[in-house]
Amino acid sequence: MNHVKLGEYNQLEIVKEVDFGVYLDGGDDGEILLPTRYVPDGCKPGDVLNVFIYLDMDERLIATTLQPYVKVGEFACLEVAWVNQYGAFLDWGLMKDLFVPFREQKMKMQKGNSYVVHVHLDEDSYRIVASAKIEKYLSKEMPEYKSGDEVDIMIWQKTDLGFKVIVDNKFAGLIFKNEIFKDVHTGMKMKAYVKQVRPDGKIDIELQKVGVKKIEDFADVLLEYIRKNGGTTPLNDKTDAEVIYETFGVSKKTFKKAVGDLYKKRLIVLEGEQGMRLA
After folding, report:
1. What is the rounded CA–CA span in Å between residue 65 and residue 71?
2. Which residues lie closer than 8 Å to 118 by C-beta, 6 or more apart?
3. What's the chain's average pLDDT?
4. Most exposed of 14, 144, 187, 263 (fewest Cβ within 10 Å)?
5. Rounded to two decimals, what is the model's pTM?
């Protein structure tokens, strides 16, 4: 059976041109319309296009060359475009908005607010839908990461301990608040590093790779830290190594090199035991 993948990209061949677009060969799903506005210039029957397949207002398969913000099987932070008596509709970058039924909302979604959701096919209706009940869709497998592995993360939600994150679009992780040296917010995506995988499968994440990142990278972190603390810090090269490690997760040697780097660039002023301030 050669079916198209709904909610994903498919490589489909143009079979015929019509006034309102082109039809693509959807295999067992029949011919699928790519409306004129999405047809690349110069296309002709026999050409193969990379298209995203979703359902139109009448629940028919339709193709687009637009790139949605998220595909089926992925997590994303999306804004609510409108709400009706059935649920909320999220802007995911396509003409038809993405539906979140009320039963899949943790709290009643409000127009204009953004929420982290998981996108999947509803088994009953075969529609593409989203759910804010993230925990249901995170993997229960034991992650096979090693300390120091680079991962892709998305900031999920703030907690008393720090920020929960989604790791590699699959696992739950946590960045402790005393290890966050830059502004982060829900929905942000970035590279990060595995600090450790705990025996229960939870992943501790850190934003910089200790000891391997270049000194210049930590110098940026230190500068941002001083900025966020009103332009001064009592920390200096006499500060206890443990305090430095607890604050930044780096060695005193790395800290001192970064201080020297910022001082040479005249970005900070050293004030002895009073610490340092922005120049």
Report:
1. 13
2. 74, 75, 130, 131, 133, 134, 136, 137
3. 92
4. 144
5. 0.75
